[in-house]
Specification:
homodimer; 4-stranded parallel β-sheet; 7-stranded mixed β-sheet; Rossmann fold; 411 residues; elongated
């Protein structure tokens, strides 16, 4: 049995921000106060890059009120990084850890961040440096393996479904084809969440078509699908993942931008550009001459919008942060990632956490299960509502006027 | 003195939707119940185009609960139109009005809609048809003349400033240059509202640069401005109106899209495309080789997002709808547009309404006054906060961690 580490802790945030990543940070701070084995808690500015520079913030100095403001602020309050540490980088991290007697490392991030945590943990073990490494999951993409879902997803799902709900109302008012491009490189979970904008009892509600990276689609199929809906309803709202692929599994965005940027993790830049959306508009205008076709790319709004936060997501993100510290404080755990298991449906929904290995979460991602995708590969089935609804929470109630036998009613 | 019209009323919604245009609609419905001179209230599906088809909804049949749901739903619950009626079109409108004994026409919209109302009113007078025509102002652009501000603006201003607040936090976490393109063809009011995202006591808060159509800017000035901020802070958040013009007063968007669509009112399509944003990114990447430059176009989200509504705006939109009916019911008024006057500052802010002529609101638009624009033409002055803050309402409180002498504090 391992002895209980005594020493200081470092916490960092990594990768793309979310609406609740600071809830996890505050969860870590709160639980550190509960665990005697941890001394100082250093917040690393901009993740691992801040550790190298010993750019630390003493997080135990924050008041309860300051912690609550930080918790409900979107984006990463410590700053983030996209650095990908190698052996040399890690050796320099250990130098800083040793110098500051750091024995706990908490890293809040996605699968790239879990990879970083895994590398740091492996090299620490190899070099005999006693370090506990825990990963706290966050991603708006919901693409981490093992865990039922990721903190950050519910809030982004709420934003996307509210945005599409409003956009569908806008499209009813001024009909035509509307395309909304949603974040999601390999996994379509966030795009799939837009199905919440459809009210179960209103068959004509949009989104009418949903395309996710899990199902390749040809330009021709895309055109035909949209025309079919437009012929039937006189309008069509389409939600598309930025990572949507063609029949050869090549992202459409990559074909469009031959000179696209690539980051340290080898990811092509998909967000922060309207190129995919505009190319889809051109494709449809070719197929529907004279038609009104518009597109929006939701971009960074969907990951850092203040004031549109899922309560469940905020609670779970905080809880995962706390549990990372709790697990690390147990002498039996040396490293791992916090994962969630789901129990119950609807009002009875609740989660419990457990520890999974860093390796099980690192590198690879999870995709939307087949059971939620329709046969044609151009929509998300109603069964997905049970999965996503408790995470995003309720949407605003809306109504649209329609003529009825009595003169007027709501749709 | 005119006799008091007795007859039915038609209400329609026109132009781009807003978050509170249905508040005005419900205001009209509520006040019609108070005024004995008005019989039936027909809601025209898709504005004037619905009148031609006698596509009417009997709005007096709605329950109190249904009215409240409609009121808080963004976008135009009756549907909208961009039709621009000419003499022949108006003659057909009168046929329908005569057939249905319509003596009141309420039209909720912007300056194009005021033009329509003005044409309808003039032709009604010329042809001796007794009709009262009242325009209820709405626009997210805030570009109507005479009135202090427009219903719809406060809510869009709230959305834009919250979005930029979140985006500035995102940009702190992963620094670089971020451009946000905001709606606004000729008037920069909505773009100017993004200044609310800057907290008065935090000089480094974004947006760091704000460009509006009122001040032409060359590509070179734009590049130099951004580089200067980026050199100082290591990051830069820029907000740009979609109608931003070059030194020859030609919209940049027009230069970029030579084949851009034009609507019935002669407006070039600026929204529903990311072309301007992407061109600005290319411009900056040329000037800052290797720099991280991203852009988002807020698009239709800023006019129809459910759940992000300014309470003041919602109240005023409803009140303007009620007052249109109230004014029309007074035998001394034959036609006009409802306008607002502002009294008091901060907590003492309140408005009163008055009637202005349709001609005074039609066709021409209002621009951001010089007093709110900085000398360089690349930012909005702090004095604008007094004007816009009561309309948008308070923003969510946010905090960002920084190192202090004591170890840690909030920015």
């Amino acid at each position: 049995m391992r002895t209980k580490n005594k020493g200081n802790a470092v916490v960092g945030q990594s990768g793309g921000p979310t609406g609740v990543i600071n809830q996890s940070l505050v969860g870590v701070v709160e639980e550190v106060f509960e665990q005697e084995c941890i001394g100082n808690l250093y917040g690393a500015h901009h993740g691992t890059s801040g550790i190298l520079k010993e750019d630390f913030i003493d997080l135990k100095k924050l008041s309860k009120r300051e912690l609550e403001i930080i918790a409900r602020t979107p984006s990463s309050a410590l700053g983030s990084t996209r650095d990908k540490p190698d052996q040399d980088y890690c050796n320099r991290l250990f130098e800083v850890f040793k110098k500051n007697d750091v024995r706990y490392f908490f890293y809040i991030g996605g699968n790239d961040s879990a990879s970083t945590a895994h590398i740091v943990n492996t090299l620490a073990q190899d070099s005999g440096y006693d370090l506990k490494v825990f990963h706290v999951p966050k991603t708006i993409d919901n693409d981490l393996r093992v865990t039922d879902h990721c903190p950050g997803y519910g809030t982004a799902a709420k934003f996307v479904s509210q945005a599409v709900l409003g956009d569908d109302l806008d499209n009813r008012a001024l009909p035509g084809v509307k395309i909304d491009v949603v974040m999601g490189r390999h996994a379509g979970f966030l795009t799939a969440a837009s199905m919440l904008a459809r009210r179960p009892d209103n068959p004509d509600d949009g989104p009418h078509l949903i395309y996710i990276p899990e199902r390749p689609v040809t330009m021709e199929q895309f055109q035909n699908d949209v025309i079919k809906v437009h012929d039937r309803l006189g309008r069509c709202v389409v939600v598309v993942s930025e990572g949507i692929c063609d029949e050869n599994h090549i992202p459409w965005a990559k074909r469009i931008q031959a000179d696209a940027e690539v980051d340290a993790h080898g990811n092509v830049q998909l967000s922060g550009t309207g190129a995919l959306a505009d190319a889809l508009v051109t494709t449809l205008k070719d197929a529907m001459p004279g038609g009104r076709v518009r597109a929006d790319t939701f971009g960074y709004l969907q990951r850092s919008f203040p004031g549109v936060i899922s309560n469940t997501d905020a609670y779970e993100a905080r809880y995962c942060g706390r549990m990372a510290v709790y697990y690390a404080s147990n002498e039996n755990n040396s490293a791992g990632s916090v994962a969630m298991q789901r129990f119950g449906k609807g009002d009875r929904y609740r989660i419990e956490t457990f520890v999974t290995t860093l390796a099980s979460v690192a590198v690879h991602t999870k995709e939307v299960p087949d059971e939620f995708i329709n046969k044609e590969g151009n929509n998300i089935l109603e069964s997905y509502r049970d999965y996503v609804s408790p995470l995003a929470g309720p949407l605003p109630e809306v109504g649209y006027l329609k003529k009825t036998r009595e003169g007027c009613g709501l749709a």
